[in-house]
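User: Hi! I'm a student and our assignment asks us to look at how structure tokens line up with a sequence. Could you show me two examples?

Assistant: Happy to help. In each example below, the sequence comes first and the structure tokens follow. Example one:
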Amino acid sequence: MENDWKHLKVSGLYKRFDRGPIVLSNISLTVERGGFLCILGPSGSGKSTLVDLIAGFEPPTEGIIAFDDVPIHGPGPDRVVIFQDISNALFPWLTVMENAEFGLKKIYRDKKERTDRAMQALELVGLDKDTHKFPSELSGGMKQRAQIARGLVMDPHVLIMDEPFAALDAITRRRMQYELKEIWERTKKTIIFVTHDISESLILATEVTVLSSGPEARILDTFRPDLPSGTDPADAEFIAAYRRIEALVGHVHDAGESLT
């Protein structure tokens, strides 16, 4: 579809696998174009299933996923997924540049045009000096940045990120959170980000959707944290938003801990 869409809409979504229990129950949400939505929930709440449905990897049992009023059927270049498993996300036999260019081969015949577009994305994620390296030569954070660049270069309507920083150590993870927020602020690319970490959702999101535990996971609440960019997790506003989510999920955690 054309690039004049305004919202990604999920309406009355249910998902059941074969004859098993209902995984997701009556999920409805709207992601504004240029927004940053975090889908937050405990393990087993169907977060990854919801990602698969939005990406088109799985069909809904019931309900509609649409750009404005145009339903989505199956995967497409308008939605790119960034996965958690960084060890298998990149082609190990290709350099960083070749990985970033890979998806463009079916779109652009001209090699220079592919390279120029890939370099723009790699500069955005800070890998323009590492284009010649292979994935085995990259740190965990660099691999994830390379995966993000490979997604951005396709210029999708929506970048879908399924717990992309979960495998990183705590220091690298926090750095990547702030780097991703900066990338989003520069590109205004629509992002759907799945996490079970309350602090992560508050650092990143313009809007947070909280899911209940499964089976039959449902939306407990969707709200805007309205925290200024760069708000410290020790600030009163951040702590208040954190406690609001704690109350929703019915667990008590120290600030900075995850739901699991």
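Example two works the same way, sequence first and then tokens:
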Amino acid sequence: MTGVRERGDRSWANACPDERAWRGRRGRGRRALAAEQDRAAGGVDRRWVDLGDGRQARASVALKLLPRTRRIRAYLRWSDRGRSPTRYLGEVGYTTRARNLAEGWRLAHEKGLIAPLAPAPGSWASSRAVRSSMQANKGRDTTPERRLRSALHKLGLRYRVNLRPLPGVRRTADVVFPGPRIAVFVDGCYWHGCPEHYRPARANQQFWHAKIDGNKARDAETDRLLLAAGWVSIRVWEHETPQLAADRVVAAVRGTEVCDPQINRSP
């Protein structure tokens, strides 16, 4: 299965998974359902699909149990002019609906089905939707950050969060190990120009191209400043599996591998 079951989970070989793994709580309104999808996707701005012709639609991940195979499947759904297109994402295998929804969204991004919400022509945020999207983009404690911190904690590491490693330099790392001088940054695929998942905006391209290039230049400068001060900079893409990223960080902290402090990023 694509989803990796949590430690201690009971195998589904002889019994169907508990309803909490896939069925939502009954009686919830549309606002609560939308908030659930926003949390699982990592923000309202990470739920959009490109319909072509400059149109976009907000998507949702649906979970469906196949009783015969005792498998849970995730699907991406959205509305387009009265139709309801559906794309199969893959099988998920966590014991909670929240984890399975998040895994579904991860698969949707991995398959390139999600596009950034395009700004209105002529302005970076001239529409209410874009302003809402920008305001919803959290600068700290994002879902990928929390997952990485949880994985690190389970591996026995203790750390500080949202700290500026260098006094007088306005650069904040997401996870910091002051002793071994290691700073970890969890970079969003869109905002930091992930070579695998970044999709340029269709409108106001000049502004957004300069914005993303500026972010990448700032990242490189941050790494150089840290290196000059004797720090190791580890950069983790938001699409990376938390456990694999945590293994990289643990290896650096415990000195079991020689890290490249300037790059040190998985593809």
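Here is something you could point out in your write-up. The longest strand covers residues 60-66.
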